[in-house]
Description:
Elements (H helix, E strand, L loop, with lengths): L1 E6 L8 H10 L4 E4 L29 H10 L5 E8 L5 H14 L4 E6 L4 H5 L8 H17 L3 E4 L4 E5 L13 E4 L3 H10 L2 E3 L8 H14 L8 E5 L5 H10 L3 E5 L5 H11 L9
Parallel strand pairs: 1-2, 1-10, 2-3, 3-4, 4-7, 7-8, 8-9, 9-10
Antiparallel strand pairs: 5-6
Helix pairs in contact: 1-2, 2-3, 3-5
Amino acid sequence: MHVGVFYFPTDYGIHPGELARELEARGFESLFVCEHTHIPVSRRTPFPGGGDLPKRYAHTHDPFVALSFAAAATHKLVLGTGVCLVVEHDPIVAAKGVASLDQLSGGRFAFGIGAGWNAEEMENHGTRYETRYQVMLERVLAMKAIWTQEEAAFHGKFVQFDRIWSYPKPAQKPHPPVLLGGETDHTLKRVVECCDGWLPRAVRGFDAKLAVDRLRRMASAAGRNPSTLSITVFGAPADQAILGEYQQAGIQRALLEVPDLSREEILRVIDKNATLTEHMHA
């Protein structure tokens, strides 16, 4: 099992290039970054975590720009979005960003995606909360067409374009792995339908063995080979025993949190957690 991290790439924290370099030097497998294009001041949608929305949500760098700096500073670190809010991106532009980052990094990109929770945030991008999953699915399918076809076209309810040329194509074939975040049966259905992996959060009560069994069962029922689907656990605890349980259950990757702290404090945290990577094997 691989051990990586996730981080809100804030403008007041550690530089993403430095963080990536330090992670690679300590044996971490990956860096996944979170995304919010902006936070509406109205704050109509309550924060799912309860209480006030943490400062970091409004201070994140663009994930593709941050990961470009991370890619330039490293050689083998996997670079991921955790998650990219697809409903806030034009699919043609996003497809080119993903393909460019994957090619320039030498095929090191993992495309973690989600539909989002902040209704007014996505509304500012023209997406209605009620149809966000349909929009997300169509945009992902449209991006797959762009990545894999010389002359791509797409005609759906929310995405429409006639034949286009779009290069570069991603380095990974047929495209970078698409990992869908969420924990519901609806999420798992979409994972099995059109994704390469599942990105559940290690929420209270998360059971690695049950999660693996659940995904395998749904994949088999849909006629898909379960071995073609990976599981990346988002927000895994920095606990050797629990990570061992994840590995034994058959989970492929665990992402530990890089906290919202100063550069010096972040380096101390990843120093402490680096020992956890030594006992895991791919």
